[in-house]
Amino acid sequence: MERLLVLARHGQSEWNLKNLFTGWRNPDLTALGVEEARKAGRWLKSEGYGFDVAFTSDLGRAQRTCALMLEEMGSTDIEVIRSQALNERDYGELSGLNKDDARERWGAEQVHLWRRSYDVPPPGGESLKDTAARVLPFYIERILPRVMAGDRVLVAAHGNSLRALVMVLDHMTTQTIAGLEIATGVPLVYRLASDTTVAAKSVLERDIDV
Questions:
Q1: Measured on CA atoms in the order 123, 127, 133, 134, is the torsion positive or negative?
Q2: Marked catalytic residue, from 72, 88, 126, 158
Q3: Collapsing DSSP states into helix, strand and coil, what is residue 121?
Q4: CA geometry: angle at 183 spanning 181 and 184, to 5°?
Q5: CA-CA distance, 52 to 99, in Å (whole number)?
């Protein structure tokens, strides 16, 4: 039994390019983001991976990334489950603001605290802890049972919703998670043991040509 779980952050979005806080806003992928998603699909196909089910968020950039990856793999007919539980963290009042402008307004230290701390939310928004409070139950109730039943599972989501998952999978602390940045369009490949812990993990390198 494979117990395959692949996590992928969406490709570069228009707001990633503009250095804006995105959260639950819904910009599309850039041309580079489209290519990142396609490359991730090509790499997975070249390595012999396939999927039985995919999970993605309620936001277009993750859904399009998922669709592009599956298209490259020739797997457009598999079940795709969309859920708000996998959405990016809500950045509240920061949403739509340029990150440099936010630093000028609130100070670099405060903005860094909002972005990277575990439990300090931005005004009107979610902390990583808040994001984990919706992501992890969905993982336990919907995603993990499919993996443990032998389905090969793809999750195409967002930087912070995936950080919440990786924190648990990789046994990271509230301190070490602060330093984790998940790159756009780079699959994280997990194989789980029979007790649901991680048996093996690999990460696509950006410079691989496929």
A1: positive
A2: 88
A3: coil
A4: 140
A5: 38
Number of other CB atoms surrounding residue 85 within 10 Å: 21
- For the question of residue 126 being annotated catalytic, the response is no
Catalytic annotation, pick one of 10, 36, 72, 126 = 10
Cα–Cα distance, 10 to 187 (Å, whole number)? 10
The predicted-structure confidence for 102-126, as pLDDT tens digits, reads as follows 999 999 999 999 998 999 999 999 9
Distance separating alpha carbons of residues 131 and 138, to the nearest angstrom = 11
Q: Is 10 part of the annotated catalytic residue set?
A: yes
Tens of pLDDT, residue by residue over 61-95, are 999 999 999 999 999 999 999 999 999 999 999 99
Supply 201's token pair.
């993990």
Say if CB 103 and CB 96 are below 8 A apart. Answer: no
Listing DSSP states for 153-204 in one string gives EEEEE-HHHHHHHHHHHTT--TTGGGG--PPTT--EEEEE-TTSSEEEEEE-
Position of tokens 């967002």?
158
Do residues 8 and 185 lie in contact, with contact meaning Cβ atoms separated by under 8 Å? yes
Residue 42 token pair: 């090509």
- For the beta sheet containing 4-9, the strands, ordered from the edge strand earlier in sequence to the opposite edge, are 79-82, 53-56, 153-157, 4-9, 188-192, 198-203
C-alpha span between 64 and 34 (Å, rounded): 8
